[in-house]
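Detected protein of confused Function
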Amino acid sequence: MGSPSLLLIITLVLGFSFATYNLVTMVMHNRSISKLMVDDSDGGMFFDPVIEMPESVKKTKNAKLPFHVALTATDAPYSKWQCRIMYYWYKKQKDMPRSEMGGFTRILHSGSPDNLMDEIPTVVVDPLPAGLDRGYIVLNRPWAFVQWLEKATIEEDYILMAEPDHIFVTPLPNLAQGGYPAAFPFFYIKPVENEKLLRKFFPDEMGSVTNIDPIGNSPVIIKKDLLEKIAPTWMNVSLKMKDDPETDKAFGWVLEMYAYAVASALHGVQHILRKDFMLQPPWDLEIGKRFIIHYTYGCDFNMKGKLTYGKIGEWRFDKRSFLQGPPPRNLPLPPPGVPESVVTLVKMVNQATANIPNWDAE
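Predicted structure tokens:
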């Protein structure tokens, strides 16, 4: 049999090289995909919007990176009692193992001091000029942060933007990674589905609307210097969205959330999405390894422990039942069969109200 031709040898070599390249490419692609995914606390996987996070910003756990807890609030009774419960649980969790909580500030955007100044560390800032929020009180939030960042001395390099209806159910570490803030992904913030509206505020030259994260401003842990850049843009985008009738109608009560997401993207900031950051009863059934309870939804159940879905239940807990003053101490616990998340929420509210002095004061 004759020797193989030179052409055949070259063909075999090239074919082997091409196959090897494809194999290496597949391995590298799979490794790259794995970096886009972050384990949540329940063992699930979800895509992280941060592409190829540099190793240099991955935080080692040898040293704590404390963050300042900041929430915006009004002087209305409804806001006050939530802030008192929130601050109670902050103090309980702050010095626990794994916690990286630093200082605390209630940013009071009512323009004048109230009767909680001695109970909760507070900085008073101005509300928006009369009529500018048009009844959408949350529009004051970005303006409040702009003022606070300008006037306050904040020792920590990171800030957690929180809300009065948050309860720290477990000690919260710093979930941010250097220049990549950490945020909770909200299922109802849908940039792709709202591209036509968002292009009014996020022009084509800024890239795909997928650069806008499905988040609001809270909960978010972010470096202070990044927030100082984003906050004025967040305020301006919020006001522009409110001034646009089509956007205002479409986004409604989540308008300011979209504004924060757009403002971040305008500054090229992407967030690490952490589904374990927060749970929202009654839809999230278990606490698991999550860090914050957000009690924004009403919890209505019949006495068999079943949700009544839009109907007032025989047993209920809804923060909106207490618009004019705080809930009473020792709220009745839910009936058997109600999810753990709801039971834990009511027990934590009861513990706080039992231990906060002068609870009934407005």
